[in-house]
Specification:
The complex is a heterodimer of chains A (about 130) and B (about 750). Chain A contains 1 helix and 11 strands. Chain A is α/β, with parallel strands linked by helices. Chain A has a 6-stranded mixed β-sheet with strand order 1-5-11-10-7-8, with no helix packed on it. In chain A, strands 2, 3, 4, 6 and 9 form a 5-stranded mixed β-sheet that branches. The two termini of chain B are about 45 Å apart. The chains are: A alpha/beta (about 130), B alpha+beta (about 750). Chains A and B meet through helix 1, strand 4 and strand 8 of A and helix 2, helix 3, helix 5, helix 12 and helix 14 of B.
């Protein structure tokens, strides 16, 4: 094997490591957003949907209702639904029409939400 | 109304005068993005026409609150019809756009393949490549634009999807070709021909767009049944106001309004008939094909079609509480629900794209090194094509669509047949049912006592009609549950009933009265003896009838026995057939009842059930179900949803026979719109078919990727010399998800019999 081959192997392994780091390890570090008190007096978070959820992690208080307002800024069919499996919610998100979803995390913990096909992921983290 | 404008109705509270109204209206009209706003003081609401891109309903509510009045968005549940419409609009738009792009890029692909052949002699390869480059840039930046923009926005969120694969695959091919066009020397110096892959990029984009367009159309078809249901609601109702009949928008009809419906018209709301007679076609909601006769006092359902006569009815449940809205809401929730079988697919989807990208990189490395070591002239070219093929052939969409599309089509198919399945989980469990427990009264039987036999005593001169008229006249004064059955039966025969005098009810024995100047006694043997009547001539008949689960009563007139009536809760005409087909499907059928063993056994014999548990209280029903479950049975409990709700909740699949207005039947997993046990067979058949479809879909989606990706990577090359070109890979990818949706759509025509 020539030197070029070794370079290609090394570069390939590095690229694989980078891809897996970027998609699996890095997302966990994203800073969560805190819910703030909204117009209705209930804590609210605005989540922009465009190829993902922004913010993807939301911090809330356990036991208290929170309103998540999903604002889908794209027409891609992939993100047209948001699913909260733990709450039995599956909601259609019309483009450019903010859609509110209210949930009450019963206990401290991490409650995942995702798109209808489980490609995009986000989570509500409830603290005690 | 243009498509980028919406109308919303917001209830406003606290307005007391025209000035308040004007203030709210002015405020709303001043909001950016509001085209028009009207506030109705009487209705206490604001109707706003607005551009959703400029302002949201929440902001409108806030604007109203800022004026000092209360406002609340209508609960989400009320907009079942609207949400369906919004979804339809989005899907139609998506399909239209994809179709257009697919056609244009397909034409560009044909051109890209034809041009080199036509112009090969006329122009230099260099010029040819520049022409192709221009065409590719146009296709990528117009038709394929969303692949790249979506891949980029997903990438920024550390996530990756189908668009990532397409964008990386075609992007790599494009960049390679671009270098070959701009700096062919770079390749030539390394002994590699400066080939370009422009036509491949265009054709890949065209094929994937074509697949996506088919997929969008097929996805639209999966919710066709729900759309049809939502479309049953007529926009207006003809309501009697004063002495006039006026057409009102349905949302302005109030409870208690008198609604008029002519033959051939659709009923606008639920209600109770107050005059007129007609046959109403309820097939769209119940699956029952024969029209149902309606007369005064009968319940009618909005959305059904009045066939023969005119009806006037009093509106009862309206808006979100109407039967139709409940069905639509239930179906929408069901179609959006998850089936547990999907969990594995979801776990794979979540890691799929990064894993495929890793495989593509590994593919490149292996082909490059192997090619280089074995002395192939240009190892990078083949390695590159294989890596691109891996990216392009991988299809996460098929896995994501496998289960949800089957759930959507199946719940829609069920609704057409009057079988409302509440979600993917219920569907999955119903497919595994091996024991069906039936409540007797109202489930196996009609639940309404009826006169089944009239026997005249030997030698009596009284005719059957006379006998019945006398008994019915007496019973018209009684409140005994069987009395109603006898009176009804006499009315059905068109008999005129005299007014009874000196009516006396003898507890535990029967009743006596004077009718038309004759002494009539109706009751058991003891009562007959008191009146000096001998029951011996009819005793054998009485015992036979009692053995058939009927209640016999003797009739004496002026001290002589004249005959015998039998009253029973007859089994539904369809029960026997339904139970036979359940058993033919290998399902055990058990009947539970609070009645006596004797009655229960007689009903079971007639219905063809061999396992009966009689004299059980409601708690006993729950225990019986638990006992079956402990033996490993998957138990479905079928009941009316009111008296059996505990047993229904305890069972694996609770099936409630819809009693009319309340569709929700909280505890139940399946609600039957028809009180016909054949619906139970349909529910189970549909669930089994659906499970099969889901498994097929998942199997093909998995196998497709598990087989397709290695072939694209070139595992077959050493043995068979097979390599997939990226173009073939894109065709396979585009049609794999279409085939999954197509397989789910086959459930639409499923025979449920």
């Amino acid at each position: 094997m020539s030197g070029t081959d070794w370079v290609v192997i090394a570069a390939g392994l590095a690229a694989i490591a980078l891809v897996n780091w970027y998609f699996f390890v890095a997302p966990r570090r994203a800073a969560p957003a805190l819910a703030t008190s909204g117009a209705s007096g209930m804590p609210e978070v605005r989540i922009t949907v465009r190829g993902g959820y922004d913010p993807a992690t939301v911090r809330v208080r356990a036991g208290a209702p929170v309103r998540l307002i999903f604002d889908r800024k794209e027409t891609s069919g992939c993100s047209e639904e948001v699913v909260f499996p733990a709450f039995g919610i599956r909601k259609f998100l019309p483009t450019d029409t903010p859609t509110a979803i209210e949930i009450t995390p019963p206990a401290p913990g991490r409650y995942e939400f995702m798109c209808g096909m489980s490609m995009l992921h986000g989570a509500v983290v409830a603290d005690a | 109304m243009s498509t980028d404008e919406r109308t919303i109705s917001i209830p406003v509270s606290g307005m007391t005068c025209a000035a308040c109204q004007a203030r709210v209206q002015r405020t709303l009209q001043k909001q950016p993005g509001v085209a028009d706003a009207g506030v109705n003081l009487m209705m206490q609401n604001a109707t706003v026409r607005y551009a959703p891109s400029a302002i949201s309903p929440e902001q409108l509510v806030q604007a109203i609150r800022d004026t000092g009045y209360g406002a609340e968005l209508a609960p989400e549940t009320q907009s079942a019809f609207e949400e369906q419409e919004a979804r339809d609009r989005a899907q139609n738009e998506e399909y239209r756009e994809l179709k257009q792009k697919a056609i244009v890029s397909g034409a560009a692909g044909v051109l890209a393949m034809a041009v080199p052949m036509l112009l090969m002699q006329a122009v230099s390869p260099r010029v040819l490549n520049v022409v192709l480059l221009a065409l590719t840039v146009v296709v990528m930046s117009w038709a394929g634009r969303h692949f790249y923009s979506r891949a980029w926005s997903a990438f920024r969120h550390h996530s990756a999807d189908m668009n990532t694969l397409i964008a990386v695959g075609t992007g790599a091919a494009f960049v390679y070709s671009l270098i070959a066009t701009a700096a062919p020397g770079f390749f030539v110096r390394r002994g590699v021909p400066p080939d370009v892959y422009y036509e491949a990029v265009i054709v890949i984009i065209a094929l994937i767009l074509t697949g996506n367009a088919f997929e969008a159309r097929a996805k639209r078809a999966t919710s066709a049944a729900l759309r049809a249901l939502a479309g049953l609601q007529p926009p207006t109702a003809r309501v009697v106001r004063g002495d006039r009949e006026i057409d009102l928008p349905v949302d302005q009809v109030r409870q208690g309004d008198i609604v008029v419906v002519r033959p051939g018209e659709r009923l606008a709301t639920d209600g109770e008939v107050i005059s007129g007679e007609s046959a109403v076609d309820e097939s769209m909601l119940t699956g029952e094909s024969a029209p149902v006769a309606k007369a005064t006092g009968d319940r009618v359902i909005g959305g059904t079609i009045n066939r023969t006569g005119a009806l006037r009815y009093r509106a009862t449940t309206l808006g979100a509480d109407s039967v139709l809205a409940q069905i639509v809401r239930l179906m929408r929730d069901a179609q959006g629900s998850r089936a547990p079988i999907q969990n594995l697919a979801d776990r794979i989807s979540a890691v799929f794209v990064p894993v495929v990208v890793s495989i593509a990189i590994a593919t490149f490395v292996v082909w490059f090194v192997v090619g280089d070591v074995s002395g192939v002239a240009a190892p990078a070219v083949r390695a590159f094509a294989a890596a691109v093929a891996v990216l392009i052939i991988a299809c996460p969409c098929a896995m994501g669509l496998a289960v949800p599309t089957a759930v959507m089509v199946a719940t829609g198919r069920g609704a057409e047949a009057g079988v409302l399945i509440k979600g993917g989980e219920a569907l999955q469990r119903a497919g595994a049912i091996d024991t069906v427990v039936l409540d007797k009264t109202g489930t196996v039987t009609e639940g309404r006592p009826t006169v089944t036999d009239v026997v005249r005593a030997p030698g009596t001169a009284t005719s059957e009609d006379e006998l019945l008229a006398l008994v019915a006249a007496l019973e018209s004064a009684s409140e005994h549950p069987l009395a109603d059955a006898i009176v009804r039966h006499a009315h059905e025969r068109g008999l005129n009933l005299a007014t009874p005098e000196q009516f006396q009810s003898v507890t535990g024995r029967g009743a006596t009265a004077r009718v038309d100047g004759r002494d009539v006694a109706v009751g058991n043997e003891a009562l007959m003896q008191e009146h000096g009547a001998q029951v011996a001539p009819l005793r054998a008949d009485a015992e036979r009838l009692a053995g058939e689960a009927k209640t016999p009563v003797y009739v004496a007139v002026d001290g002589a026995l004249v005959g015998l009536l039998a009253v029973a809760d007859p089994i539904k005409p369809t029960s026997r057939e339904a139970i036979a087909s359940l058993r033919a499907r290998g399902i055990d059928v058990v009947m539970l009842t609070g009645d006596t063993q004797r009655t229960a056994e007689a009903v079971a014999r007639e219905a063809g059930i061999d396992r009966v548990v009689a004299q059980v209280l409601p708690e006993g029903k729950v225990r019986e179900i638990e006992r079956l479950q402990e033996r490993g049975r998957v138990v479905a409990m079928v009941g009316d949803g009111v008296n059996d709700s505990a047993a229904i909740a305890r069972s694996d699949v609770g099936i409630a026979i819809g009693t009319g207005t309340d569709i929700a039947a909280e505890a139940a997993d399946v609600v039957l719109m028809r009180g016909d046990l054949r619906s139970v067979v349909q529910a189970i058949t549909l669930s089994r078919r659906t499970m099969r479809t889901m498994k097929q879909n998942l199997f093909w989606a998995f196998v497709y990727n598990v087989v397709g990706i290695p072939i694209a990577a070139g595992v077959l090359y050493p043995a068979f010399g097979i390599m997939l070109s990226p173009v073939i890979a894109s065709a396979a990818m585009a049609f794999s998800s279409v085939s999954v949706v197509g397989n789910s759509l086959r459930l639409r025509g499923a025979r449920l019999g």
